[in-house]
């Protein structure tokens, strides 16, 4: 009898380990810090949400690893990691398992983020849009899919190596604008550098959804776990977590000396 009890206890205590890969760049409010280290405190809103899921869905434990984004995709294709946070792309269904509706479309209610992206710039941007002075020049970091949401007949895209470079070009008046996070779950926010000097143009050009996705192998082996996590996300209010990070995060341009920004901000999203 004691052996049976021990076996049952061990089974109950066993947890499904999920090795999740996320980008190694500082991308507030989602991921904070640069490099391969995963911050224990203030890791970013997305990581806070995943840690919170561990407390809501029994038998789950996330193990976070940080790599360049393309490397994360490379690893999950080969089942070297189990999960990534990704937007929906039809081509990615070949190697990623998304939460889906019965008709095969992505279940946006089960997304981990619902974000609006606006054009961001100084007065010349709004003037150009109002006067329809096309083409409007935009600086956009390479690989940003949101650039596809603007027509090539009205906008000229200048690719940059980073978001910082894009904002620098806007401030110097070299381009009209760039893109910035301006909405979370339908609520207006100013989550972009130099938000005191720049303004967002509403409505958002793009509404994007981020999903907790799994490798095909993990989903096949742990389908109940994947479904439980997606179900919990569909019933959770997440916007306040992102907004808390946004409101407490210092961005370049928030202080008089915009070249100096705090590297650590002491806050806790979850009690």
Short description:
With 271 residues, this protein is of the alpha/beta class. The chain has helices spanning 2-13, 45-56, 69-77, 123-130, 163-171, 216-221, 223-234, 239-248, and strands at 16-23, 60-67, 83-86, 96-97, 113-121, 136-141, 155-160, 177-184, 187-191, 199-215.
Structure notes:
- By secondary structure, the protein is an alpha/beta fold.
- Helix content is 29%, strand content 27%.
- The protein contains 8 helices and 10 strands.
- Strands 1, 2, 3, 4, 5, 8, 9 and 10 form an 8-stranded mixed beta sheet that branches. A two-stranded parallel ribbon has the order 6-7.
- Strand 8 (177-184) and strand 9 form a beta hairpin.
- Helix 2 packs antiparallel against helix 8.
- The longest helix is centred in the first third of the chain and has 12 residues, at 2-13.
- Residues 1-12 and 256-271 have low confidence and may be disordered.
What is the helix content? 25-40%
- Specify the number of helices: 8
Described by the principal axes of the CA atoms, the overall outline is: globular
Number of beta-strand segments = 10
**What kind of sheet is the major sheet?**
8 strands, mixed
The computed structural class is alpha/beta
Strand percent estimate: 25-35%
Stretches with pLDDT under 50, minimum 5 residues: 1-12, 256-271
**Quaternary arrangement of the chains shown?**
single chain
Overall pLDDT, averaged? Answer: 86
Topology as a string of helices (H) and strands (E): HEHEHEEEHEEHEEEHHH
Compute the separation of the termini in Å: 41 Å
Rounded to an integer, what's the Rg over CA atoms? 21 Å
